[in-house]
From TrEMBL:
Family classification: Belongs to the peptidase C59 family.
Annotated organism of origin: Pseudorhodoplanes sinuspersici
Pfam name, any one: CBAH
InterPro entries cross-referenced by the UniProt entry: CBAH/NAAA_C, Ntn_hydrolases_N, Peptidase_C59
Choloylglycine hydrolase/NAAA C-terminal domain location: 12-334
Name of this chain's protein: Choloylglycine hydrolase
Length: 356
């Protein structure tokens, strides 16, 4: 069932905000058709890695130069989303029907990693977007079957750093494409350059209300606030979410501090929260289940304070971890559960004025 859900999961949305005090915040949702059982993991400095290859040979070896923290999935010791101690952030996004990984030969094994390992490789080795751009061409990222799912996941990545730089990393047609990402937004297919071109279809977008229009003797007034965004697509498809993510992340008032930016990011991503059943397949899978993407979790990374914030479908309370107050020189990965149900606080006063 996990494999069939992974084939249809394609609804993640990412944004990038920069506060007036210079704090950069990477924030995103992650959608899937089943619970990925994500945990928070902290990968310490010095942690040894070996990449996965298509033919089972040992891939690229590296030792983590920088500690990192974020969210994993499917029990893997790698980050689907996170940040490192230098303020670099990376997020994996599904990229169905568009990803086309690099060719592979056994001679490439020593410089090869699997697509899902790319985020951890970047976070554990580099301090900035410029460093990623300078080094990512030195590795081979081919199609590798993820054994738990029985197929090779199609993914691409957004990468941000504390200075405010942002890129998108994609493999299309067997080639590496690194796109500068001036608006900091990413969703899913098609490729990033297509989404940026598609924005030209919304040149009438405005943060302010449109003025009345006079048609002969008839004066047409907007029906209410928000007329500048009239016509923005409201569905859950990747192109529509990309347009809305640009509109909302660019139109919010600039947050003053990192904390303000974190809270603003969660408000923006409220617009992309998918309830169970709203984005579903038309037929049941082999197990008789209807597959439906929903928002498993939403995260926001403060790249200045190196704090990772998150909430889950079952608990909208924002929780956080401070990477620099963890044992980043430890010997092994630290796991922190994301489990927990929503707490509804009762504020009903009793007859004596107290609350139960």
């Amino acid at each position: 069932m996990l494999g069939s859900a992974a084939q249809t999961a394609q609804a993640c949305t990412g944004i990038f905000l920069i506060a007036a005090d210079g704090t950069a915040v990477h924030a995103r949702t992650l959608e899937f058709g089943v619970d990925l059982m994500s945990e928070i993991i902290m990968v310490p400095r010095g942690y040894a890695r070996a990449g996965t290859t298509p033919d089972g040979k040992e891939g690229l070896k590296w030792t983590a130069k920088y500690a990192s923290v974020g969210m994993n999935g499917a029990g893997q010791p790698i980050l689907f989303d996170g940040l490192n101690e230098r303020g670099l952030a990376a997020g994996l996004f599904y990229f169905p029907t568009s990803a086309g990984y690099m060719p592979y030969t056994p001679a490439d094994a020593g410089k090869t990693i699997a697509p899902w390992e790319l985020g951890s490789w970047m976070l554990e080795n580099f301090a900035s977007v410029d460093e990623v751009k300078a080094n990512i061409g030195n590795i081979v990222v081919p199609s590798v079957v993820f054994s738990s799912w029985g197929f090779a996941p199609e993914v691409h990545f957004v990468v941000h750093d504390a200075s405010g730089k942002s890129i998108v990393v994609e493999y299309v047609g067997g080639k590496l494409n690194v796109h500068d990402n001036p608006l900091g937004v990413l969703t899913n297919s098609p490729s990033f350059d297509w989404h940026m071109t598609n924005l030209r279809n919304y040149v009438n977008f405005s943060m302010t209300n449109v003025p009345p229009i006079q048609l002969g003797t008839v004066k047409l007034l907007p029906t209410g606030q928000g007329s500048g965004m009239l016509g923005l697509p409201g569905d859950f498809t990747p192109p529509s979410r990309f347009v809305r993510a640009v509109a909302f992340s660019q139109s919010v008032f600039k947050p003053k501090t990192g904390k303000d930016a974190i809270l603003e990011a969660f408000h923006v991503l409220n617009q992309f929260d998918i309830p169970k059943g709203s984005a579903r397949d038309g037929e049941k899978d082999a197990n008789g289940n209807v597959q439906a993407d929903y928002t498993l979790w939403t995260s926001a990374s403060d790249l200045k304070a190196k704090r990772y914030h998150f909430r889950t479908y079952d608990n909208s309370q924002i929780r956080s971890l401070d990477l620099m107050n963890m044992n980043i020189d430890g010997k092994d990965i630290v796991k922190v559960s994301t489990k927990g149900d929503e707490v509804i606080k009762n504020l009903t006063p009793t007859t004596d004025g107290l609350k139960k």
